[in-house]
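COMPLEX REQUEST
Ligand: iron/sulfur cluster
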Amino acid sequence: MTTIPINTRQDIDYGTPLPASTETVTLRVDGVEVTVPKGSSVMRAAATAGVMVPKLCATDSLKSFGSCRLCLVEIDGRKGYPASCTTPAEAGMQVRTQSKKLGDLRRGVMELYISDHPLDCLTCSANGDCELQDMAGAVGLREVRYGYEGENHLDATKDASNPYFEFDPAKCIVCQRCVRACEEVQGTFALTVDGRGFASKISPGQMEAFMESECVSCGACVQACPTATLIEKTVVDAGTPDYDVVTTCAYCGVGCSFKAEMKGREVVRMTPYKDGMANHGHSCVKGRFAWGYATHKDRITTPMIRKRITDPWTPVSWDEAIGYAASEFKRLQAQYGRGAVGAISSSRCTNEETYLMQKLVRAAFGNNNIDTCARVCHSPTGFGLKTTLGESAGTQNFDSVQHADVIVVIGANPTDGHPVFASAMKRRIREGAKLIVVDPRRTDIVRSPHVEASYHLQLRPGTNVAVLNALAHVIVTEGLSDDAFALARCEPASYAQWKDFVSRPENSPEALEAETWVPASVVRGAARLYATGGNAAIYYGLGVTEHSQGSTAVLGIANLAMATGNLGRPGVGVNPLRGQNNVQGSCDMGSFPHELPGYRHVLDDSVRALFEGRWKVSLEKEPGLRIPNMFDAALDGSFKGLYLEGEDIAQSDPDTTHVTAALEAMECIVVQDMFLNETAKFAHVFLPGSSFLEKNGTFTNAERRISRVRKVMEPLAGKEDWEVTVALATALGYPMHYHHPSEIMDEIASLTPTFTGVSYARIEELGSIQWPCNERAPDGTPVMHEHEFVRGKGKFVPTQYVPTTEKVNRKYPLILTTGRILSQYNVGAQTRRTANVEWHDADRLEIHPHDAEERGIHDGDQVTVSSRAGETSLRAHITDRVQPGIVYTTFHHPESGANVITTENSDWATNCPEYKVTAVQVTPALKGSEWQERFQSFTSEQLGLLERAVGVRSPKP
Ligand code: SF4
Ligand code: SF4
Ligand code: SF4
Ligand code: FES
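STATUS: Structure written out below.
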């Protein structure tokens, strides 16, 4: 059993937020001199001086409010007793926080609160973790004179509708911290105060239950509540936590930092960490609440093997499973050649695990057949940004958005996909920044409380490049470009060539209107705003990359930013929003078949020599197979063995029928995962994986921020994932000798120029590090390309629009596009095993009322969706979020078969699949598709084979 690194840092609540001012004021609080930024409250100044003024309605994540009157102080030269939370600290002030009069006043306030509060402290779930209780003690309240028999709220009804927290209004002191958290931190405005004075009550929506309201279950109100009114159900069940460990969310690319709050070796709650640089103490429903999958009964904790996929599984020891996998891989290489095997890593893996996977492939398999799921999401980002700017990563930190005047969201749905960053973005928009959204669908960010896009370019899926060219056309032909920046910072010849290209009449918004469906006036307005509205930042997602011209669109985005001078300082930039927690890291760690860690080509002799020297092995020069090439080679009979860690290609990759045929054609598939996922149904060896709570390592988020993942419990199957890869490499005849992931990071740092300053010790010291971190940037790099681009001069690349070959016709008249939803995560393996299914228990097909009516489809009807690749069946949801001619679905549930219908089309440069454009027909259906029937029967068969494996905990269908 290893020691758990307990977080010893005490969270101080300064009462009001830290102002941004660089000016300071010096004052005295209880005789202690203290200097604070101008604009700080007296309460904050006191806390900085180590003096905690009693408070209830104030907390430092929210603006001061001044309602509870508990924080009164005396200030020399001022009359009365001002509230310290709403009084600005001024130079020379003399503040007293303690006096007999102040004590009497505070006790009087507390008496009123307590006289309308249940007297059940000893049995209350928040006992020992309640600010009301603490404050009663702090002000010395010993008795309540008013009696409890008068009018009160003690019999108010509890709302337990939310699966993760409950709301007991009997305990509410109406401090409104919850209401303000929902508005200021989350930006959802789901809570209101109903009534006035004594009758005032907190209510979700119009006196609705939480689950019926607009609430998105982010938990910010629960965290802000100073009483047990809003409290996590896990705390009610298990009691208040004893200690905490700081770690990183394993869901999306925002990379929120959390305190895993523990009782013994069990997680009681996940509390967003105030000092987390990506999230500043905020979270979404997934990170804060959806961690129960880690101990779900479906976890398989015993290694298993079988000769054929029709055989029952046999539980075996780790040694036997790893020995069997290694002997099979060796047999296949001896029989079919060195290139007959390969591996696919996942962006859910830590950096260290990913590094080891590619090292195993290159050093132990002796080929470059390593790829990652980033292939199917952000590989065009790597190509596009490297080509134009010289580095395959986003340019900014998240905080940069607070300096943006214009925010452009292209092909991304941040409120669902990157919720915590969306909250930061919405805050900035509420402060006055303008918003441009480029998306075929009316996503929530287009219009939400106090947020409205100035322009929504509701384009036809597949026409991103045409829209980007039209925007560029307006900027260049109307003379809105920043020529001084572009000529000084970029290659002049490429700039001239690009200007010439985009100025052509065929790239005008008017010429492209019929193709893109975006009115020319809207394009012109958006282009003018982007080019002239001040600091303009572009945030984009898979709606840009997952196209046949995904790489071209990324080039187009970088061109726009260079032409308008929107790079190299806070508030601007080109920012890919990464889908999974470690997409950035998995690319950085060399898990593409043509690149070693740090994006260095395998063809480069000096780079190979560097790794050969360190790894003591000779490396293959030829780039290996990409994921789609592996499938094709498997069907050709030349690719026979695959090692997958955390990646479920049978569900996540396009054209499922093709993928599963390739899996069936292979002789040895080794799956390392927490659950018997869809791919594992085709596997011959199952190696139990560990959740993020069971291992050490690092994740790198969308802003290049490397954060620690810390083990809070022992791996259920006895091994952390990196240990399994070490054992497999060793069994393959290439021994690896690591005792802790920190040693793997040391090796990465020693071999990767952008990581030379990274170590676990430095991460410990700084909290997290944004690469590049080296001699030139010892504390990391929040904003890239400040003085020059990584490649020296920026390179403009003309972006000829080439329509996709996936065309609608009479047989397939609609375009299907796909995306995700807030409560679920990717293939749903984790979130489907949590109460998040209460929000989304099945994927649905969004269809416009006009298209539905034409087909006789009603809301909730089962419909058949057929494409050139296949056919599946879903329930319809009729909505005008999508335009006529467009249908949309999520892909979180395997039985939906969303990828049965997506085609094999892919990006010309990187093979990233064209998930976002599939021509389909939709018709009413009475039952599931043939594919779904086969899926159900294969699933039952495989679960039956699992149940016959003695001693293995088996999932129920
Ligand atoms: S629910 Fe909690 S945070 Fe909200 S008003 Fe009541 S006591 Fe304050
Ligand atoms: S959980 Fe989040 S969205 Fe829901 S009411 Fe609380 S703060 Fe608002
Ligand atoms: S925003 Fe992303 S990283 Fe943050 S808590 Fe939610 S899922 Fe986790
Ligand atoms: S804490 Fe200042 S008025 Fe409530």
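REMARKS: The longest helix spans residues 318-336. The chain has a mean pLDDT of 93.
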